[in-house]
């Protein structure tokens, strides 16, 4: 009996008998539940127990315009889309690149920025794809950077870390020779580390978008409308300039 109960609970957790909240249900509750990682500065990070960053400010501004309060949830990057499909929150904003593989599992909004994966290294380290040959390269697990470095011929070793900030620490400590991450994340790190890190080449480009549970078209429509309002009324430009000193929208 006990075993049967446990099995049922496990199955419910895995398949999620509940449905994603519709736009109407979210609106009626007055609060939208948004998930991010909180360890990808300056896009999403923690300041004490508070989430902050470009994506957090943008999502908060969008929610405000939609007349909603926000409840933030933080999850390891690798769990974010799984939790979305298990209905633990309404949408995810955590710098997910739009890939065909992810698009099979979730629905993506219009992109909220355009970027690419770039190399960061210590002065004198490898700055081009060709120079990664035989080198130890670090990337965050579950990312498009991992997929991309796997395609670079002749890499010595690929080391994966739970958080992108762990990869930077590994690079600083000399445990890897190169770190592949978002070009804006890399730029920030290079600035903050004053002379200890340099940015190398862009390895690939990607569009970054928010994710809703597959089929949640009502919510997706509202998010896209809120994003396009933020893009046209100056909200997006203001937030982007605060974090990057430039407008990082897709052009
Ligand atoms: N843009 C990359 C990807 O799509 C990395 C995203 C990492 N995000 C994060 N919150 N750590 O995989």
From TrEMBL:
<feature type="domain" description="Solute-binding protein family 3/N-terminal">
    <location>
        <begin position="31"/>
        <end position="247"/>
    </location>
</feature>
<dbReference type="Pfam" id="PF00497">
    <property type="entry name" value="SBP_bac_3"/>
</dbReference>
<dbReference type="InterPro" id="IPR018313">
    <property type="entry name" value="SBP_3_CS"/>
</dbReference>
<feature type="signal peptide">
    <location>
        <begin position="1"/>
        <end position="20"/>
    </location>
</feature>
<protein>
    <submittedName>
        <fullName>ABC transporter substrate-binding protein</fullName>
    </submittedName>
</protein>
<keyword id="KW-0732">Signal</keyword>
<dbReference type="InterPro" id="IPR001638">
    <property type="entry name" value="Solute-binding_3/MltF_N"/>
</dbReference>
<comment type="similarity">
    <text>Belongs to the bacterial solute-binding protein 3 family.</text>
</comment>
């Amino acid at each position: 009996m006990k075993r049967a109960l446990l099995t049922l609970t496990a199955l419910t957790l895995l398949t999620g008998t509940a449905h994603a909240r519709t736009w109407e249900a979210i609106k009626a509750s007055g609060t939208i539940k948004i998930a991010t990682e909180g360890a990808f500065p300056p896009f999403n990070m923690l300041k004490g127990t508070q989430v902050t960053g470009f994506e957090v400010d943008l999502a908060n501004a969008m929610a405000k315009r939609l007349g909603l309060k926000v409840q933030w949830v933080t999850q390891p990057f690798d769990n974010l889309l799984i939790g979305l499909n298990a209905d633990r929150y309404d949408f995810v904003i955590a710098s997910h690149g739009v890939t065909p593989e992810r698009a099979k599992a979730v629905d993506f909004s219009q992109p909220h920025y355009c970027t690419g994966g770039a190399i960061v290294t210590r002065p004198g380290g490898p700055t081009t794809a060709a120079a990664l040959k035989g080198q130890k390269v670090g990337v965050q697990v579950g990312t498009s950077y991992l997929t991309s470095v796997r395609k670079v011929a002749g890499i010595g070793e690929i080391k994966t870390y739970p958080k992108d900030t762990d990869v930077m620490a590994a690079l600083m400590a000399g445990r890897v020779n190169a770190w592949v991450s978002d070009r804006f994340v890399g730029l920030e790190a290079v600035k903050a580390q004053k002379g200890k890190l340099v940015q190398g080449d862009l390895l690939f480009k990607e569009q970054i978008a928010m994710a809703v549970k597959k089929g949640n078209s009502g919510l997706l429509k509202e998010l896209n409308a809120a994003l396009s309002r933020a893009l046209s009324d100056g909200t997006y430009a203001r937030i982007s300039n605060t974090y990057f000193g430039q407008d990082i929208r897709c052009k």
